[in-house]
Design goal:
four-stranded mixed sheet, alpha+beta
């Protein structure tokens, strides 16, 4: 588990980060500022989009930095309520949670859960998660504080949360939410639209949102869907449920 000592070196070199490695974090922050998000005040019934994921899953990262990010850019975020559950294929074994990609993934899952809990505005926590998931998997545990600082988040408070009782509570809650899925999830990323799973058909993500929305005025994206929007590579290797390293 990461400790407070793990964070301090990054706080010291943050000025260098903001000049070079922080470019992605600054971009994420700009993309999801409130002024960029479309108003939801006039939407009659938002579509509930839920992603069940894990922090070191390559296909989860691809979905977050691809279709989910595009959702904020093409106007579909205005008709959706997005929820992300960081737990994925983890399992409770012998009283301890074991994550598919090892202990670092468990730590990052708790960090993401703490950020979602601390910063309930979608643009805040999604900017952070998007930034983290853009980083190389082997470096995410080291680089997440840089994303947090670049976005103005309380990285020390987030780390304390992840290492403490609050992080454990959020982890347990996300385990229950994941294990209570009906039908059960079979792999990650596992995406539901208004509770209905997309299964392997992640290519239809945008189309399913447009179909589920019952408002009279839909975003322009819905009118011009041509089968290419929201494309998710068919060569993906979905992280199967039940496999824990």
């Amino acid at each position: 588990m990461a400790t407070m000592l793990h964070i301090f070196p990054y706080l010291i070199i943050i000025s260098l980060f903001l000049q070079c490695a922080g470019a992605q974090a600054r971009l994420s922050a700009k993309l999801f500022e409130p002024s960029v998000l479309l108003s939801k005040s006039s939407t009659p019934s938002l579509v509930n989009v839920t992603l069940y994921e894990e922090a070191l899953c390559p296909d989860c990262a691809e979905f977050i930095t691809g279709p989910l990010t595009q959702m904020f850019q093409n106007g579909l975020s205005a008709i959706t309520t997005l929820t992300i559950i960081p737990y994925g294929n983890a399992k409770l074994i012998g009283g301890s949670i074991r994550c598919q990609h090892g202990p670092d993934e468990c730590t990052l899952d708790r960090i993401e859960a703490c950020v979602i809990d601390f910063y309930p505005d979608t643009h805040s926590w999604f900017s952070f998660i998007s930034c983290v998931e853009q980083q190389p998997a082997a470096s995410r545990l080291e680089l997440w504080p840089q994303c947090g600082v670049a976005l103005g988040l309380d990285v020390i408070g987030i780390q304390n949360c992840a290492d403490g009782e609050k992080g454990a509570e959020l982890e347990a809650r996300n385990r229950k939410l994941t294990e209570s899925l009906d039908p059960p999830h079979r792999f990650v990323p596992w995406v539901t639209v208004d509770g209905a799973p997309l299964y392997e058909d992640l290519d239809s993500f945008f189309e399913r949102i447009c179909e589920a929305y019952k408002g009279t005025e839909k975003p322009e994206t819905c009118a011009r869907l041509d089968g290419a929007a929201g494309t998710y590579p068919s060569s993906r290797n979905l992280q199967l449920w039940g496999h824990v390293e």
